[in-house]
Amino acid sequence: MIMRTKILLGVLILVAGVLLGMRLESALPDDTRDALQKLEQAFLLIHQRYVEDVDSGDLAENALEGMLDELDPHSAYIDAETMRRVEEDFSGGFEGIGISFEFVPGDDGQDTLTVLSVIPGGPSEKVGLHSGDRIIEVDQESTIGYSSIDVQRTLKGPRGTTVNIVVLRPGYSAPIDFSIVRDRIPLHTVDVAYMIDDVTGFIKVNRFAGTTHREFREAVEKLQALGMQRLMLDLRGNSGGYMEMAVQLSDEFLPENAIIVSQKGRIREANHSFSSTSNGLLEQEPIIVLVNESSASASEIVAGALQDHDRGLIVGRRTFGKGLVQQQHLLPDGSAMRVTIARYYTPSGRLIQTPYEDGHREDYYNSKQELHSNSALLSAEQILQSIPDSLLYETAGGRVVLGGGGILPDYIVDLDSASLFLREIFSKDIANTYARMWYDREGESLTQQWQDQREEFFESFEVDDTEFQGFLDYAQVRGIQFGSEEGAFDTDDVDSDKSYLKARIKARLAVRLFDLEAFYPIMHPEDQTLQAALQLWDKAKILAEK
């Protein structure tokens, strides 16, 4: 009943906008106009005569959400506050002090705002803010018990304005005052770009925002200057973003006039086909693209284009399966509606959208989980053999690929699920917390020892067995039980994950010593998908030479 009311009110509110604030380009059919008038009258009746006062704003929010819930799974209403954050995320920057932060539990049970890292070249780095600093006051307001919303409210602000903060720094007896002038802070979409070996470059793209193509080109040029002859592009966990950026990034790999993606909708302006231009940066080099079940939308455009043109080898797990195109319509209060206007197709003609029924979003996501679980049990060849001919397509070189339900990798890497021991460690955030405690304890000496020694740290620093035992002792304090009794973890449990946990602690420590990018080179030896992909360069080279 509640959902039906939301849907009705959503239609009514949309009607009010149409009748009162939008110019109709052509006359509506009689039956549509009659329906709009009927719904407008019903909305006014509710507003004027309902037994209690009705908050029109709340009704509008709930109604729009309910109305769009009954469409496809990706049409959505975004409230004004969320829309502001989304625009920041995809515009490539915001105005603030330039830190990554985390919340650390305090002695009284309330969270303490703590600097995780400072953005290089940003305002906080310039005044000397450090990783590990506890921010206890912002403009004379205590930060004890702060939430993420409080951080946005107080530390972000117009460029050129000043914010005064007080921090407690581990190893210092007295608080330290800082006056920081806010500035434009870039939000990067390329997480990391580095050389895995003398000839292999690695670039991870976390989303497709307005700066992605520029960032990607800069990363490629940097790696080419270091001798890169082949590239591993990591799109795992990349949920998409701007189609234009996916097209431009794909263009860097493909020769001129190759179709990248097409879209088809009910209205004429929704029908487009996008093709590559000339002089891409990577038209000849062997390419491997890493994907997983969280690679969606724009990520799937890139993976699909490279797979269909036999330009790159796709490795990992079956992608999300989002083949719908949304158009965003801003509303007067800063909120927005994203309405699906088209479906997109890969160069071979594949629609990779997972099937859905309108209004059944929970079933849609449950079916995806089942599909991805089943896909992980079989090889790509076995899956293709079990698929009806109607879902089979051919690449430019005659390889068989799959439509309907995501991009099926050329090589599936079945990741073993984390052990019960690791899941307990992750759920309590013990590795990250222990690294922070280590940095609090020895951060000054570690910084002095490894400052400007980034590569040396990656190669030679080790979490020795004594320190690892300290980690296990701390895990026990946090409720992890060791021993032979039921429910406890034994020596074999610990030994099987010891290498991974040592790397994880080291990587978290490196983030505090250097920056967020330092996490990846340290963890890559423990990355099963990446390690499997490194054995496939001969096959990627064959594709590049076709």
Task: Write structural notes for this entry.
The protein is of the alpha+beta class and 546 residues long. Helices cover 41% and strands 20% of the residues. The protein is built from 19 helices and 21 strands. The strands form 5 sheets. Strands 3, 4, 5, 6, 7 and 8 form a 6-stranded antiparallel sheet that branches. α9 links the parallel β15 (287-291) and β16 (313-316). α1 crosses α2 and α13 crosses α16 (491-513). The protein is globular, with a radius of gyration of 26 Å. It starts with a helix and ends with a helix.
Q: Pairing-aware structural class of the strands and helices?
A: alpha+beta
Straight-line N-to-C gap: 59 Å
Provide the residue-averaged pLDDT.
85
Oligomer: single chain
Strand proportion, as a percent range, falls in: 15-25%
Shape: globular
Unreliable runs, pLDDT <50, ≥5 residues? 1-26
The number of strands is 21
Explain the layout of strands and helices.
Layout: H1 2-21, H2 30-49, H3 56-69, E1 76-78, H4 80-91, E2 93-96, E3 99-105, E4 111-118, H5 123-127, E5 134-138, E6 141-142, H6 148-155, E7 162-168, E8 176-181, E9 183-186, E10 190-195, E11 200-205, H7 212-225, E12 230-234, H8 243-251, E13 259-265, E14 272-275, E15 287-291, H9 298-308, E16 313-316, E17 324-330, E18 336-345, H10 361-375, H11 380-385, E19 392-394, E20 400-402, E21 411-412, H12 420-427, H13 430-450, H14 454-460, H15 465-477, H16 491-513, H17 519-523, H18 528-533, H19 537-545
